[in-house]
Write a structure and sequence with these properties.
The complex is a heterotrimer of chains A (803), B (202) and C (249).
Chain A lengths: L14 H18 L21 H9 L5 H18 L13 H14 L13 H12 L5 H19 L4 H9 L5 H4 L8 H4 L2 H6 L9 H5 L6 H10 L2 E2 L10 H6 L12 H5 L8 H10 L6 H8 L16 H8 L17 H9 L18 E2 L16 H4 E2 L26 H5 L10 H7 L41 H18 L11 H24 L14 H11 L6 E7 L5 H17 L3 E6 L4 H12 L4 H4 L4 E5 L4 H9 L1 H4 L27 E6 L2 H11 L4 E2 L2 E5 L2 E5 L4 H9 L7 E4 H12 L4 H40 L1
Parallel strand pairs in A: 4-5, 4-7, 5-6, 7-10, 10-11
Antiparallel strand pairs in A: 1-2, 8-9
Helix pairs in contact in A: 3-6, 4-7, 4-12, 5-6, 6-12, 6-16, 15-17, 23-33, 25-32, 28-30, 30-31, 32-33
Chain B lengths: L8 H19 L3 H34 L7 H20 L4 H31 L1 H4 L3 H17 L8 H35 L8
Helix pairs in contact in B: 2-3, 6-7
Chain C lengths: L1 H25 L10 H16 L2 E7 L8 H18 L7 E4 L2 H17 L11 E3 L4 H14 L2 E9 L4 H10 L3 E6 L2 H10 L2 E3 L7 H4 L4 H33 L1
Parallel strand pairs in C: 1-2, 1-4, 2-3, 4-5, 5-6
Helix pairs in contact in C: 1-9, 3-4, 5-6, 6-7
Chain lengths: 803, 202, 249
C-alpha cells in the first residue's frame, strides 16, 4: 500500500514503474535514435539522399510521413502560388537541383549542345492553357478530351514537376539497376551522353540552360526548376531542358517521331506558352489530336481551378525540337528500341485517347526537354505508333512571357455544391448564421492568411464553421422551455458548487455523558483512596521488609557508606516536574544518606527544568542539613544538547560548563570543585531520572569516562534512582558484567525499602499508605472493568448469534 | 543511485559530510575534533530552545489576533511567559521569585497533569477489552495486574515472587523491543548519512 | 578499540545490505512487507479528512534530534511530509506539533518545502508547525486544545513520547478523533497500546516511511533491518549457548 502523491514527483513513482520507464526510456532511446525513413543507413540506394534535398526532406520531416509525391505536389503548389505573387522571383540556383537532375541536365547539354532558348517561361494557368487548347482544338475536335487529360496530367504533373520523384532521383544519383524503361530516368553522370536513352535525348531541350523555362517557372522557392528539370531531363540528348516541354506524351502518341532535341510538348500544352515558340504545344497537339481524352479530363478542362491555378507554364523549348518531339519519330529506347514494351496503362491510354486533340498554340505543359529525350540512340520513348492519337497530334507550344495571371474565382466555373437535405436540416436559424457564400464573400478578396499553416495563401475558406457566429445574435433566441424540475436541479447544482468553496467552521465534538461520568467516578474513587490515608496519617501498611534482600538497593547503601568525607558527588536531576512526587520520594533517603556522609553535592541537569527541580528538591527535602540550607552546594545548571551535551560534559566538564565568577576566576577552582578536571574525579555519580532513555544516556555516554584508563579496575561508581517505569529497563545494566550501574533504586517502593533499610523516615513512608490504597483501587477498577466488558461482549455476541 | 533526489545539494552535502565526519571521530583518534563539534551542537541546541520559545509566543500571539477572537488560554500563556522570562532574566533562576514561580506554579500544574494521567490510564485499563478484543489484550491486562500486585503489599501481604517475575519478563521483552528500536534508529541515521532521507526539507 | 571496530563493521554491513536491497527491490514488483493494518486505516483517515475538510494533526514528539530519540522524530517528519503532500490543499491543512524547538524548525521546513513543491506557497502558514510546550507535560497540555478546538479528525503521533502521550490520546478520544501513534519510548508504547486506536509497537514506528511510500530506501532499510536482526539473534543465541557450555565444562 502506498500513498498517491500528486506531484512530486519523481520520487513517488514506484520502483517498478521507474524501472519500466527506464527500460522504456532505453527502448525509446533506441527508437529515438533511429532516423526517419530515407535517412537510415539501410535505406535503399534509389531513395534520394536527404542532404541533397534539404528543403524537401525538411518539409517531409515536418509533415511526418507524407510521401514524396504528395510533398512534391504541395511544394509545387506553393511554388506556383509564390510565382503568381512574385513573378520577379528568380530561379533557384543550380545548386538547388538534385544531383540526378543536374546530371541529366549536364548530360543533355553535352549531348545536344546549345539549345535554343524558349524565351521566358512564365508560370501560367494550366487550366487556362487547357482552355486555350480547347479553343484551338475546337475545330479539330476531340481536343476537349485531350485538354482534359492534358490538364489533368498537367495538374498532376505540375506539382510533380516541382519535385523530383525519389525513385527517379535515386536512379539518377546511384545509377541503380532498374527496369529498362526507368533506366533512362536515372543518369550515369560520368557518361550521360553515351547512356542517355533516346527518348530522353529526343525530349531534351534545344535551349540553353540559361534560358531554361524553369527559370521563369520556378519563381517560387519550390524547385519548380527541378520539376521541369526532371521532366526535361527525362530526355537524353538535350543539354539543358530550359524552356522545353516534355514530349514523351507526344512520342507515345506515335504519329510523329521525336527527333533529337525535341522537347516534350504535353507539359507545355498544360501550361501557357507563347505561340510560335511553343513546340511542346505542337507536340502535344500532334499527339493528342485525334485521340480521345477521358471524361474526367474533359470535365477538368471545363472547370477553372479554385485554388492556385497558377501552375507553372512550361514553355516549349525549341519549336523545332518540340515539333520534332511531337513528331512520330521517337528516339529509340536504349538497347532494343524497337522491342520496348509499352506499359499497360499507356496502352489503355492510347486506345482511349485516340481522338483527343490538343489545340494549337496551347502549351499544355511547358517543360524543358532535356537532351536525353532527343537522343535517338538512347531515348526510351515509345514509338509514335504506340502513343495514343491525341498525344501524337502536334500541339503548338506557347511560350509564356508573362507570369500567369492570378486565377479569379469568378472565372472558374465551378458549380456550387448542393447540401443534402439532412445537412440542410442541421443548419441553424438563418438569423444567427451566415451562409457559406456570405461568409466567403464577407472576406475581402485577396485576403491572405497571416497565421497558421495556410499563411501566405489567399482565398482560403474561413476556418470557423459558418454555423458559429461569435457575438450576440441579432435575433434573440426565445422559446427555451425549462421545466420546474430542471430549475430545481439547476438551483441544486448551483448551491453545491457555491457550497464547495465555503469553509465550514469546525464542528464541536462532545464526549458522551456516560464516558464523562465514568471518568469522574474513577477519578473520585482513586483520589479519595490515595488522599485520605495520607491525610489520616499512620502506617497501616507495612513498609517493604528488609528480610527480602533487594541487592541493587542494598548496594547503593553500601557504596554511600563507603564515601569519604567532603567527597564531591555529582547529582544529575533528569526528571520532569510532573513526576517530582515519585522521584522526590524515591531519592530523598538516598540524598539524605549522602549528606549525612559529608558528601558535597554538585548538581547538574540536561533538562531545562532540572536546576529548578534540584533547588526545589534540596530545599524541600534536605533543608535540615546546614550544607543545603546555607547553599554550600554547587549548581552547575542546565547543559543543552541532550545526549550530545552528556558526551561533551563527560569528555571535558570544565569546557562544557564554564563557571566564570564575578570577581574573576573560575568556579571550578573553588571547593568542592577543586581538583575536578575529569568526570571520574567525582567520588560518585548519582542520576535521578524518570525517563529510561535519559538514564541510558548517562550509562552509555558517561559510563565509559568513569573508568580509569590506566587502571580499568578502578571506576567511579554510578548509582541510579529511577522511576518504577524505568526500573526494569535499567536493571539489566546492573546485572551486566562488568556492572555498568553499581546501584539501583526503583520507584516509590524502592525508596520505601531504602528508608526501611537505612532507617531514615522520609516521603516514601509518608506516601506508602496512600500508594497501597491507590494500587488496590486501581486493581479493582481494572478487574471490574475488564470483567464487565468481557461479559458485555459475550452477551452481545450471543445475542447476535441468536439473531 | 540515480533515483536519489538531491533537491538541496548544498544542504545534503553538508549533512552527509557532517554525519560521516562525526561517525569517523568515534573510530579514529579524533577526540578533539569531536569535542569541538559537540560544543557547536550544544550551542545550537540552546539556540533551538530559544527558537522554540519564540515560536510558542508567535503562535499564541497569532491566536490573539485571529478571527476566532481572543483566547483566554493564549493570553494567559503569553502573560505568564513574559512575566517569568522578565523576572528570571533580571534576577536569575536561583533567586527567590523565580524559584517561587517554579515551585508553586509549574510543579503543581505538571503534577496535576500527572494525576489526571493516572485516572486516564486507569480508565483506559478498564476499557481495554472494549477497544481491542483479542488475546494480546487479555495478556496485556494480566501482565498489568501482575505488575500492580507486585509493586506494593496488598492488604499487608507482600507478593515478592510477582515482582521478580514481572521484572524478568518485562525486562526481557523490553530488551527485545529495544534491540529492534536500536536497529531502526541505526537505519534511520544511515538513511540520513546516505542522503536518501532529507528531513531538512530540501 | 574493539567496540569501535564492531560498530564500524555493523555500520558497513547495514549500508551494504541497504544498497543491495535497494537494487533488488527495484527489479521486483511490490514491497514484500507484512501487513500493518494501522497504515491502511491511516490512509483512509487522511482521505476522509481531505474530503471532510478537517484537519490532520501530526505530532512528532519531544525527542532531541541529537539523541537516539531523534530517529523517531525523523520518521515523524517523513510521515508529515507525505501527509502534507496529500492534504495541503484542504480547508484545514495538516498541523505539526513538537516538544522541541529544533523539531519545530524542521517541521516548518518540511511543510514549507512541501507547499513549495505543490505550488501552494500562498496557503503556507508558519504556524502550521509549532511548539506546544518545552517540557513533556507542557507539550501534552499544549497539544490537547489543538486536538479539541481545531477541527482535527485524525491524530498521527509519530515520534518520541513518554507518559504524557496518555493525555494526548485521551484528548483524541474525547474529541472522537482517530489516533495513530507510535513511539520509541517503552512506557509510552505500553500506554499507547491501551489508549490509541491504532498503536505502532516496537519497530513498526520505523516502518512508517516504507508503508506510506516515503521512498525506496525506506523499504530497503526495512529489509536490511530484518537481516541484521537475524544476525543479532544468531549471535545472542550463540553467545548464550557458548557461555552455557563454557559454564558446564
Amino acid at each position: 500500500m502506498s500513498f498517491d502523491i500528486p506531484s512530486d514527483s519523481e520520487e513517488d513513482d514506484p520502483d517498478w514503474l521507474e524501472g519500466l520507464q527506464s527500460g522504456g526510456d532505453d527502448a525509446d532511446a533506441d527508437f529515438s535514435g533511429s532516423s526517419p525513413p530515407g535517412e537510415e543507413e539501410g535505406a535503399p540506394d534509389w531513395l534520394p539522399d536527404s542532404s541533397s534535398e534539404d528543403s524537401r526532406s525538411t518539409s517531409q520531416s515536418e509533415e511526418g510521413e507524407v510521401p514524396d509525391w504528395l510533398a512534391g505536389i504541395r511544394e509545387a503548389e506553393e511554388s506556383l502560388q509564390q510565382s503568381i505573387v512574385d513573378p520577379s522571383s528568380k530561379l533557384p540556383a543550380e545548386g538547388d537541383s538534385p544531383d540526378w537532375l543536374k546530371s541529366i541536365r549536364d548530360q543533355q547539354v553535352e549531348e545536344t549542345g546549345s539549345m535554343d532558348q524558349a524565351g521566358d517561361v512564365p508560370s501560367g494557368d494550366f487550366i487556362g492553357r487547357i482552355q486555350q487548347l480547347q479553343a484551338q482544338e475546337s475545330a479539330g475536335g476531340g481536343a476537349d478530351e485531350t485538354q482534359e487529360w492534358a490538364s489533368g496530367v498537367g495538374g498532376e504533373e505540375s506539382p510533380i514537376a516541382g519535385e523530383t520523384p525519389s525513385w527517379a532521383a535515386g536512379e539518377q544519383a546511384e545509377g541503380a539497376d532498374g527496369p529498362d524503361w526507368m533506366s533512362g530516368l536515372g543518369g550515369e553522370e560520368p557518361e550521360p551522353q553515351a547512356e542517355a536513352p533516346d527518348w530522353l535525348a529526343m525530349l531534351g531541350s534545344q535551349q540553353s540552360p540559361e534560358e531554361h523555362p524553369t527559370a521563369q517557372i520556378s519563381q517560387s522557392p519550390v524547385e519548380s526548376g527541378e520539376a521541369r528539370d526532371w521532366i526535361g531531363d527525362i530526355g537524353g540528348d538535350e543539354t539543358e531542358p530550359q524552356g522545353e516541354a516534355l514530349d514523351w506524351p507526344g512520342d507515345i502518341g506515335g504519329e510523329d517521331t521525336v527527333p533529337q532535341g525535341d522537347a516534350l510538348d504535353w507539359p507545355g500544352e498544360l501550361g501557357d506558352q507563347p505561340p510560335g515558340e511553343d513546340t511542346s504545344a505542337e507536340m502535344a497537339k500532334s499527339r493528342v489530336e485525334g485521340d480521345e481524352a477521358p471524361d474526367w479530363l474533359s470535365e477538368m478542362v471545363g472547370e477553372e481551378p479554385a485554388i492556385s491555378p497558377a501552375f507553372p507554364a512550361f514553355t516549349a523549348g525549341d519549336q523545332e525540337g518540340a515539333a520534332a518531339v511531337v513528331g512520330p519519330d521517337l528516339p529509340d529506347l536504349p538497347g532494343e528500341p524497337d522491342e520496348v514494351k509499352m506499359p499497360s496503362w499507356l496502352d489503355s491510354l492510347q486506345e482511349s485517347s485516340q481522338d483527343v486533340e490538343v489545340p494549337d498554340g496551347t502549351s499544355v505543359f511547358d517543360v524543358p526537354v532535356p537532351a536525353a529525350f532527343t537522343d535517338e540512340g538512347e531515348s526510351f520513348l515509345l514509338e509514335p505508333t504506340d502513343l495514343p492519337d491525341w498525344l501524337s497530334e502536334d500541339v503548338p507550344l506557347e511560350v509564356i512571357e508573362e507570369p500567369p495571371a492570378r486565377v479569379e474565382t469568378g472565372d472558374i466555373d465551378i458549380a456550387p455544391a448542393e447540401l443534402p437535405s439532412w445537412l440542410q436540416a442541421m443548419r441553424p436559424v438563418e438569423a444567427v448564421s451566415l451562409p457559406v457564400e456570405a461568409a466567403v464573400e464577407a472576406r475581402p478578396p485577396g485576403l491572405e492568411e497571416s497565421i497558421g499553416p495556410l499563411a501566405g495563401l489567399s482565398n482560403v475558406l474561413p476556418a470557423e464553421p459558418d454555423i458559429v457566429h461569435f457575438g450576440t445574435p441579432s435575433v434573440p433566441i426565445t422559446g427555451i422551455n425549462i421545466t420546474e424540475t430542471q430549475q430545481n436541479y439547476a438551483r441544486l447544482l448551483e448551491s453545491l458548487v457555491i457550497g464547495e468553496e465555503e469553509v465550514h467552521p469546525p464542528r464541536k465534538r462532545v464526549v458522551a455523558l456516560p464516558q464523562q461520568i465514568l471518568r469522574w467516578a474513577i477519578a473520585g474513587i482513586l483520589y479519595a483512596a490515595v488522599f485520605f490515608p495520607i491525610l489520616l496519617g499512620g502506617q497501616s501498611v507495612p513498609l517493604p521488609s528488609t528480610d527480602n534482600v533487594i541487592a541493587e538497593i542494598q548496594d547503593v547503601a553500601v557504596i554511600i557508606d563507603g564515601l569519604p568525607e567532603n567527597a564531591p558527588v555529582l547529582i544529575a536531576f533528569e526528571y520532569q516536574p510532573g513526576l517530582s512526587g515519585e522521584m522526590e520520594a524515591a531519592a530523598a533517603a538516598v540524598v539524605d544518606h549522602l549528606l549525612n556522609q559529608g558528601a558535597h553535592p554538585v548538581v547538574i541537569s540536561t533538562h531545562p527544568t532540572g536546576p529548578g527541580l534540584a533547588e526545589n528538591f534540596l530545599q524541600s527535602t534536605q533543608s535540615h542539613h546546614l550544607f543545603i540550607s546555607d547553599r554550600h552546594y554547587v549548581n552547575l545548571g542546565y547543559i543543552s544538547g541532550g545526549t550530545a551535551a552528556l558526551l561533551h560534559f563527560a569528555a571535558d566538564p570544565r569546557a562544557a560548563v564554564p563557571l566564570p565568577l564575578e570577581e574573576g576566576g573560575s568556579g571550578w577552582d573553588k571547593s568542592p570543585l577543586t581538583g575536578i578536571n575529569e568526570i571520574r574525579d567525582f567520588t560518585m555519580v548519582l542520576v535521578i531520572s524518570d525517563d529510561p532513555d535519559a538514564a541510558r544516556g548517562w550509562i552509555e555516554q558517561v559510563g565509559p569516562f568513569l573508568v580509569d584508563p590506566s587502571n580499568p579496575q578502578s571506576r567511579t561508581p554510578l548509582i541510579m534512582v529511577v522511576s518504577a517505569q524505568a526500573g526494569p529497563l535499567i536493571y539489566p545494566y546492573y546485572l551486566s558484567s562488568p556492572k555498568q550501574v553499581d546501584g539501583l533504586v526503583s520507584g516509590l517502593s524502592g525508596g520505601a525499602y531504602y528508608e526501611n533499610t537505612t532507617n531514615r523516615p522520609g516521603l516514601a513512608r509518608l506516601y506508602w499508605n496512600g500508594f497501597s490504597a491507590g494500587l488496590i483501587v486501581s486493581i479493582i477498577i481494572i478487574i471490574f472493568g475488564g470483567l464487565f466488558n468481557l461479559a458485555r461482549l459475550f452477551l452481545t455476541s450471543r445475542r447476535a448469534s441468536r439473531q | 543511485m540515480n533515483r536519489l533526489k538531491f533537491k538541496a545539494p548544498i544542504a545534503t552535502v553538508i549533512a552527509i559530510l557532517a554525519g560521516w565526519g562525526i561517525l569517523f571521530t568515534y573510530i579514529l583518534p579524533l577526540d578533539n575534533l569531536r569535542n569541538t563539534v559537540l560544543s557547536w551542537v550544544v550551542i545550537a541546541a540552546a539556540a533551538a530552545l530559544l527558537v522554540g520559545v519564540i515560536n510558542l509566543l508567535s503562535v499564541h500571539l497569532g491566536k490573539l489576533r485571529g478571527e476566532t477572537g481572543v483566547s483566554l488560554y493564549s493570553f494567559s500563556l503569553i502573560f505568564a511567559l513574559i512575566i517569568t522570562f522578565t523576572v528570571t532574566l533580571l534576577q536569575g533562576p536561583e533567586k527567590e521569585f523565580p524559584q517561587w514561580l517554579f515551585t508553586y506554579v509549574q510543579i503543581p500544574i505538571e503534577s496535576s497533569l500527572m494525576a489526571v494521567m493516572a485516572v486516564t490510564l486507569t480508565y483506559a485499563g478498564a476499557r481495554l477489552l472494549t477497544r481491542r478484543t483479542n488475546a494480546f489484550s487479555v495478556i496485556f491486562g494480566i501482565a498489568l495486574l501482575l505488575a500492580l500486585l507486585g509493586a506494593a503489599p496488598i492488604l499487608s501481604t507482600e507478593i515478592t515472587f510477582l515482582r521478580e517475575i514481572t521484572q524478568v519478563l518485562s525486562g526481557a521483552g523490553a530488551r527485545g523491543i529495544l534491540l529492534g528500536i536500536g536497529l531502526g534508529t541505526v537505519a534511520t541515521g544511515l538513511r540520513i548519512l546516505l542522503g536518501s532521507d532529507r528531513p531538512y526539507g530540501g | 578499540m574493539s567496540t569501535e571496530l564492531t560498530t564500524f563493521a555493523l555500520v558497513f554491513l547495514f549500508i551494504t545490505l541497504m544498497v543491495v536491497f535497494y537494487f533488488i527491490n527495484r527489479r521486483r514488483e511490490g514491497h514484500h512487507l507484512r501487513d500493518i493494518p494501522a497504515f491502511y486505516r491511516l490512509r483512509g483517515a487522511i482521505e476522509v479528512a481531505v474530503e471532510d475538510g478537517t484537519r490532520i494533526h501530526v505530532a512528532i514528539g519531544r525527542g532531541d534530534i541529537t539523541s537516539p530519540q531523534g530517529a523517531a522524530a525523523l520518521i515523524g517528519l517523513s510521515m508529515l511530509k507525505r501527509v502534507a503532500a496529500i492534504a495541503s490543499d484542504s480547508d484545514h491543512p495538516p498541523t505539526a506539533t513538537a516538544g522541541d524547538g529544533m523539531l519545530a524548525i524542521l517541521a516548518q521546513d518540511t511543510l514549507r518545502s512541501t507547499y513549495q513543491s505543490l505550488n501552494l506557497m500562498d496557503k503556507y502558514d508558519p504556524s502550521l508547525g509549532r511548539v506546544t510546550g518545552l517540557t513533556p507535560f507542557s507539550f501534552a497540555a499544549g497539544t490537547m486544545p489543538l486536538i479539541i478546538d481545531e477541527a482535527v479528525s485524525a491524530n498521527l503521533l509519530v515520534g518520541s513520547f513518554g507518559n504524557e502521550v496518555a493525555l494526548i490520546t485521551s484528548a483524541g478520544e474525547r474529541s472522537q478523533t482517530l489516533t495513530f501513534a507510535g513511539t520509541d519510548n517503552l512506557p509510552g508504547q505500553a500506554i499507547l497500546y491501551a489508549t490509541a486506536h491504532e498503536p505502532l509497537v516496537g519497530e513498526e514506528l520505523y516502518a512508517g516511511g516504507a508503508y506510506i511510500g516515503a521512498g525506496p530506501m525506506h523499504v530497503a532499510s526495512l529489509h536490511a533491518q530484518d537481516v541484521v536482526r537475524w544476525v543479532l539473534v544468531i549471535f545472542l543465541i550463540g553467545g548464550a549457548l557458548g557461555g552455557l557450555i563454557k559454564g558446564l565444562f
